[in-house]
Design brief:
Low-confidence stretches: none
Number of strands: 18
Strand content: 15-25%
Radius of gyration: 22 Å
Structural class: alpha/beta
Distance between the termini: 31 Å
Largest sheet: 7 strands, mixed
Bound molecules: flavin-adenine dinucleotide
């Protein structure tokens, strides 16, 4: 139970962003209460022993870190580390495959040459990602400050070609102008489609917004492995918040927020509590319900997450690469440019795609600490699969989608995946799949949307306040993924909501 009847700030939800906000506000001397619906904190950033009797702590939902600024880990003194993956990606094709080895441009060039028959796409790749890298260096530091105007951000980017490619024209136009090969184009496009149901030429530029956040993290665009799994970040944040004096109450679902603009009352399972500010880590869709307003249209999540534990890594049809390298980075399956478009069209029409695109990655190759020592010693490994173009509208076909997705994986393996799956204490294979509806039920993601709503460009618009966290109630702020520049494991909206509160008080 909360210790007080009123707080400077009550935070609705103990996802990682709610915890970031709590830690900043408590460190600034504010009284802070976090009310979390579930019996644990972390939301979509948690580690779980998903298989009975098996001591493997899987990152059950989110699994890689890019967007968490160093500033937040430093400010909060977090005991949390990430590890870089040397292999950026591997994409099988026939009995070969495309390897992007960030430690060896020469090896990457050779691989491009084998797959595409020339150096052209490799050189285009170097130029294209050189451009995104420069944009990352300039844009990423702005994410933890007040929102720049569109013109202000354009000045910061200071590169008309990059601005047009990323902020003005459908990404498909650039991808097709820059790259020739269908497979290379597809590998580039995947970053525009993660958790986002869209296509290369979408005139709304939803694909560009998704792509931007996937290439600017940390000022490099690298996606790193959270040491100890994603739960290690949440645990470090909860520790930091508590150490600064924040109270965290779990099993406390908030049911209503009433405010006169300066003082609020928060009702939750267990009672009512007063608050000067209410910071909402739940989605904007849920917030409308808490305020008694008509909710906005529910967003639609578009992915299937599959967690697995393997007795051993499977052998590949491509004998030219060690599976320990191929699975260490992002392993793309059925993700050529044309395959992505076909799968989008099939899913948009309500059908399970014939060749569902997905990407997989093995956490334990880079960080075996999530496995009990005896499992690691026996050579067990985790395998994470993130399926694209699996919108909520297909959730009732989850089994068929899983089967079709795993068939695409099997097609590039030299042995069936099922032969490699470990078994739990009851003799069942260690595999679980989460559809958007599962995510809505378990984590509260609206429609299973992993970013709470569609991502927005990181600049001000008519509907945004100074920090991108404001609502039309002056003392109710969004501190979760649904804020402008929210989405992903970043802590950024939590930081920004805390800054907005502290600024109001000045
Ligand atoms: C399968 C999957 C894979 C992903 N992979 C990645 C990845 O690899 N890297 C990455 O950066 N991002 C990834 N994401 C996205 C990322 O996990 C989320 O965008 C991010 O975790 C959102 O954090 P949050 O704290 O804003 O919200 P959430 O994590 O959604 O937390 C919100 C919290 O609020 C609580 N809550 C909701 N309503 C109430 C209420 N009424 N009362 C009390 N509490 C309430 C919820 O229980 C939850 O704990 C992934 C997401 C999913 C689902």
């Amino acid at each position: 139970m909360p210790l007080r009847t009123s707080y400077d700030a009550v935070i609705v939800g103990g996802g990682h962003n709610g915890l970031v906000a709590a830690a900043y506000l408590a460190r600034a001397g504010r009284s802070v209460l976090v009310l979390e619906r579930l019996d644990h904190t972390g939301g979509a950033a948690v580690s779980t022993r998903a298989f009975p009797g098996v001591d493997a702590r899987l990152s059950r939902y989110s699994y890689l870190v890019s967007l968490l600024p160093r500033k937040i880990t430093d400010d909060l003194g977090l005991r949390f580390a990430v590890r870089r993956r040397r292999i950026s990606s591997y994409t099988p094709k026939g009995d070969g495959g495309l390897l992007v080895d960030s430690g060896s441009p020469a090896r990457t060039r050779e691989s491009f040459l084998r797959i595409t028959g020339s150096d052209r796409d490799f050189e285009a790749w170097q130029r294209f990602y050189g451009m995104t890298q420069r944009v990352a260096e300039r844009v990423f530091p702005t994410l933890t400050g007040p929102l720049p105007s569109r013109a202000g951000l354009e000045r910061i980017v200071d590169d008309p070609v990059a601005w047009e490619a990323l902020f003005e024209r459908p990404l498909g136009e650039t991808v097709e102008a820059v790259f020739d090969d269908d497979l290379i184009r597809g590998v580039v496009l995947t970053d525009a489609l993660i958790g986002t149901f869209t296509y290369a030429h979408d005139p709304s530029l939803l694909q560009n917004r998704c792509f931007l956040y996937h290439v600017i993290g940390g000022g490099t665009g690298d996606w790193d492995v959270p040491v100890g799994g994603m739960g290690a970040l949440t645990d470090a944040l909860a520790d930091a918040a508590r150490a600064a004096g924040a109270e965290i109450v779990t099993g406390a679902e908030v049911t209503a927020v009433e405010t006169d603009g300066t003082q609020a009352e928060v009702s939750y399972a267990g009672g009512r509590v007063g608050a000067r500010h209410v910071l909402v880590n739940a989605s904007p869709h849920a917030l409308a319900g808490l305020l008694g307003e008509a909710p906005p249209a529910k967003p639609e999540g578009a992915q299937m997450k599959v967690n697995m534990l393997l007795r051993r890594l499977p052998r590949l049809r491509d004998t030219g690469i060690d599976p320990r390298e191929a699975f260490a980075g992002t392993f793309h399956i059925a993700e050529s440019y044309s395959q992505l478009q076909t799968a989008y069209e099939e899913a948009a029409a309500g059908a399970v795609p014939a060749t569902p695109p997905s990407e997989i990655y093995c956490h334990s190759l880079t960080d075996p600490s999530i496995l009990a020592p005896d499992l690691a010693a026996q050579g067990l490994h985790t395998l994470t699969l993130f399926g694209l173009h699996a919108p909520a509208r297909l959730s009732s076909s989850k089994d068929a989608l899983l089967k079709a997705t795993l068939a695409q994986l099997d097609a590039v393996l030299a042995e069936p995946l099922t032969d490699c799956l470990a078994e739990d204490a009851d003799g069942r294979p260690c595999i679980e799949a989460k559809s958007p509806l599962d995510l809505e039920r378990e984590v509260g993601l609206p429609g299973g949307h992993i970013f709470h709503r569609d991502l927005a460009f990181p600049y001000a618009s008519e509907s945004t306040g100074r920090w991108g966290v404001e609502t039309d109630r002056p003392n109710v702020l969004i501190c979760g993924a649904g804020a402008v520049r929210g989405g992903g494991v970043s802590g950024i909206p939590g930081h920004n909501a805390a800054m907005a509160v502290l600024e109001q008080a000045m």
